[in-house]
Each structure stands twice: as C-alpha cells, then as structure tokens.
Amino acid sequence: MSTQVIGLIAMAGLFGLILLRVPVAIAMGLTGLLGYAAIDGWETALITAGSTPYDLTDKYALTVVPLFVLMGVVASKAGMSKELYRAANALFSGFRGALAMGTVGACAGFGAICGSSLATAATMTRVAVPEMRRFGYDERMATGVVASGGILGVLIPPSVVLVIYAIIAEEGVPQLFAAALLPGLAGAALHIVVIAAVAFVQPNRMPRSAWMGFRERLSEFGGLWKMAILFTIAVGGIYSGFMTPTEAAAVAAFVAIIIAFATRTMSWRGLLDSLLETAWTTGMLFVIVIGAFLFSYFMALTQLPNAITEYVGALGVQPWVVILMLVAFYVALGFFLDAISMILITVPVFLPLAEAVGYSGIWFGILVLVAVEVGMITPPVGLNIFVIRAQMPDIALGDVYRGIVPFLAAHFGLIAILLLLPQIALWLPARLY
To answer: Angle at CA 296, nearest 5°, toward 25 and 39?
Structure first.
C-alpha cells in the first residue's frame, strides 16, 4: 500500500472520528500517530509524538496566543462590548436600520479584540438583539445581523485565528495582520450595503432611528477610548515596527487590565476569573495545535499534498477553478467544525496546492478565513446560528436561518473581491513590509 493511499484512508478516518464527536485534538493526534506508525513504524511514531509538544511549546510565536486571549477576555468582562455598540449606533443614527448597522460595527470591533466569532455572537446577542427587538426590528434581521457580523472580527487584527494560521503556514504574523485589515473593512462595508438594501426594499423590517445631535454623538464616541487604546497598542505597535506581535499583545493585555481596574469595571475576583478563562482557552487551543502538528507531520510523510498538487496540475483546470473548489469544501466543512479546527486540519494539505497554482500563502490565508467563517453561518447547520439560538430560545430556529440569507451575499461578495482583486489583501503587506 502506497503512502498516498494511507494518507487518503487516514483523512477519511479523521473525518469519521469527528462525525462520531471525538474531540478534534484527539482525532487529529490519533490519526497522525497511527498513520505515522503505519508508514515508519511504532518507534519513530512514538518518538515523534513525544517530541511534538516540546517542539511546539518551544515556538516563540505561540506566546502571542494567551496574551491576545487575555486581552479579549478582560475587554469582554469589562463591558467594552456595550460601549462599542452604543458608539456604532450613534454613528448611524438617523438612518433606517441604524441599530443593525451599529451592530455590524460593534461585532467587527469586538470580534477583533476577542478573536472568536462564537464568543462575539454570544456576547453581541445579549447586547444587541434585545435592543433591536425593543425598537421594533424584525427578529430575523436582528439575529441574522449578529450571526453574520460576528464572523467579521476574525479578519480584523488582532486575530488569534490569524496567528494560528501563521504558525501552521509558516507565514509572518505582521504580514497577515496587514493583509486582513482591508478585506475585513470591506466585509463590514458590504454588510452595511446589504442592510441598506433590505431597509429600502422592506422598510417595515427596520424602523428609522432617532437623529442624535453632535454632542450626544460625541458623548457616545467618547466611550470608545478604551478600545481605541487597545487597538492602537496591539495593531499600531505591530504595523509601526515598534513592537513585535508578542510584545504588543503583552502590553495590550496589561493595559486592558489597568483600564478595567481604573474604570472600576473589574474586581480582583473578575481578574482571577479572566486568568482562569484564559488558561482554559489557551490550554484547549494548544492541545488542538499539538494534535494538528502531529497530523501535519504525518501528512508530510505521506507526500499526499504533493500528489494532490500533481493530480490537479494534470487536469489542466484554471487556477480560479481550483480555488473555488477549495472554497466550496471549506464552506461545507464549516457546517460542523470551528475555524481553528478547519485551518489546522486542511492547511497542511491545501496550502501547497494553492501555492502551486500561483497564489501566495498570505492571500490564501485571508481567503480561507472568509470561507471557513461563511460555513459557520450557512444553513442547514452553522455553529454561530446555534449559539444565538441558545441565547434566545424564544426565537424560532427557522427565523434565524432566514435572517442569515441576505448576509450570505456580503460574504460571497467578499470572496469574489478577493478572487478578482487579490491586491486588496496583498497591497498593505507589500507597502509595510
């Protein structure tokens, strides 16, 4: 049996284990271990399994993960999401659908800080949906905009998911942060266009909000100073070259704690809870990454990525056709996996293929993030949808599904922009680095 056949069997076995609800970390680690043993023997497989955790924790780049996670947890517990929502709503006040537009801005900003679309959806559901219902918004629109807007944050730096991709793909974190900024802002703008279109066609679904005066707007914008400081440190420090990603994350996390205590939005008990949540989240991520690295080593041993690349090259199809096939696969995979798990499983296999047909690893990383997150809001499954349903059990699941549909146009529009205008992701990294 050839190594490529072993690799294909292992991939099928991996997805079988996931469908059986085996935790992703265990499924990847077990598949990698058994596959490695089948090709190179148990002694080598066990040595690799034993050295992988040490090799992983020795990577300096991974220290950025718990620091950005801590910053996001503290920001969430300090109530910064509510302040961001009020400021975003003030920006669009006077327009029909202002609360929905404000929710998009708040989701994008808060998601960038906390780094998780699921956490953003859960938080903004509690913050935004009750307000929109109170002002007479259609429930489908209220839940749809939160579910869809919740996935924008993974594109806007700083993003933990981008850091994970950078480590797996061996790309620079600053370059990926720069590449993600413009597509992330474009995604938010497309969401606002969709809301405006729905408001024009079906004005009964979104009432016109009251116009705010200059001083009232200024007062609401004043609440953004906390988020502005954190973003300036975390992203500005990296873009300027003044700090490395790890240094920027450390300073931003420390400043977030100082701000939370100075504004009396966090107690010592809250800090302890934040540290425990950070440790739990980081431990969970690292276990998944360890399993992913073991699986990645096995994939390299099988030479399956090279075989797939040669096969696709022999077909003679256009590069954009290959990319569309990968996008469709990622969207389907997003029905039952989160973004980090999808990236860890598939990037070792698909990145060589994307590079072989002429796309850079930086650009492919941005496209993958958009595609995997679309899967998390696409019916009939969509993990973000179930998070919202758990927060608002009185809203019918069918209404949440129907609310998502208009916003799929924004995400697929962003994918089309990335395919037609790849410079939207490559221009800023080229200018800065």
So the answer is: 105
How far apart, in Å, do the first and last CA atoms of the chain sit?
A: 46
For 48-57, what is each residue's pLDDT tens digit? 888 888 777 6
- Residue 411, pLDDT > 70, answer yes
> Quick check: pTM over 0.85?
no
Burial label for 402, CB within 10 Å (0-12, 13-18, 19+), is middle
Exposure string of 96-130, with b = 16+ CB inside 10 Å and e = fewer, is bbbbbbbbbbbbbbbbbbbbbbbbbbbbbbebbbe
**Cα separation, 125 vs 143, whole angstroms:** 7
Helix (H) or strand (E) holding 1: none
Tokens 């389907």 sit at which residue? 332
The pLDDT tens digits of the residues spanning 133-172 come to 877 888 888 888 888 887 787 787 777 788 888 888 888 8
* 188 closest CA partner among 94, 93, 118, 91: 91
Contact by Cβ (8 Å): 410, 187 = yes
d(Cα 96, Cα 92) in Å, to the nearest integer?
9
Strand partners, 208: 96
